[in-house]
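Weekly structure sync, notes
Attendees: PL (lead), two postdocs, one rotation student
Agenda item 3: pending single-chain targets
PL asked that the sequence for the first pending target be pasted directly into the notes so everyone works from the same version. It is reproduced below exactly as submitted, 343 residues in total.
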Amino acid sequence: MKCPVCGMDCVKSAKDILATLPTIFLPCADCSVRILDKRLPPPSPEYGEPCSCGKRFIDEVFAHIWVVMVEEGDLKKTDPLIAAGSPLVHPGFAMERPPFLPDKSLVLLSPRVTRKTAERLVREVPELRGVVRTGDFVPGITTADLNSVPKVYELLAGCDVRADVFPLATGPLVMYKQQSLVHIEFPRTGYPKIRSVEQHVGTPPVPYFIDACSGVGTLGLTAACLGVPHVVMNDAWYASAFWSAFNLEVNREYLSISRVKIFEQVQDMAKHPVVREPVKIAETEGDQIIEVYQGDFRELPSVLVSGIPPLTALDLFEKKDRFATEKIQKEWRDRVGGDIFIP
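Predicted structure, written out during the meeting:
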């Protein structure tokens, strides 16, 4: 599959990603391990090279990154290893032990890296897919106020598209995203949001499911994989809505659909990053009806099917504000009906 960000073949179908999972981060018999204290600088400005199998222990990869950043002046020799940044592996899933990283399996998030250094890192550190400069904010939409354009991180070099894998009762779900444009939600042990959807969808599944604030579509596609006949996903932020649509295609083989029709490309959607009135981004053909919209969830009732009370997942950023969430739920029940849950 062609990557919508870099145009290369770094995006694979869910089936191809899942085929790599049993061994992708496991060492071979010749791999070496050097565990470093992340709170201290490496003991020497040196690093081990990848094993003959092509993998390298994550601490060794970060030693390599740290050395380059020191040589370029982004870090001081007294800075701890953790100052180099944060790792996001590809594909991401809950792991029991630190990984041995193969080629192009890591996105580096760092507030201190410069573009010159990032370009050198992508050239010289084989495990890196891309380097992203972060800030002291969460990228994408973080409040109900849609009057301002959200802040995003900056992709400095390489490609920051990566996937997370979520286990379902019916089989794993693969969710891609461009990491600089959406908030980080790395898979947690136990996968509580996934379990919440499974519990509420039930067996047999509910007939109609709405993922009103979908992000990249994890909850909506979970419901679809569980067999819900009609699923609607929606997000006001262009990157989230686009990747919800793209992830339909990624997981198409595991859904009862014959075709995914995507009506908007991410470059065009970036011209209207936040939308209020719902715009259809994608739909499916086949036994399941799955739709993706970009818009304010409060305007979504105008495009929903009437007469079928849905099950609605409201994964709100304001979920800790009890008064705000209760108000939103009441308004939704009055206009749409059906059951609501906050995962």
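Discussion points:
- Residues 14-158 form one domain.
- DSSP finds eight helices and 15 strands in the chain.
Action: rotation student to compare against the earlier draft before next sync.
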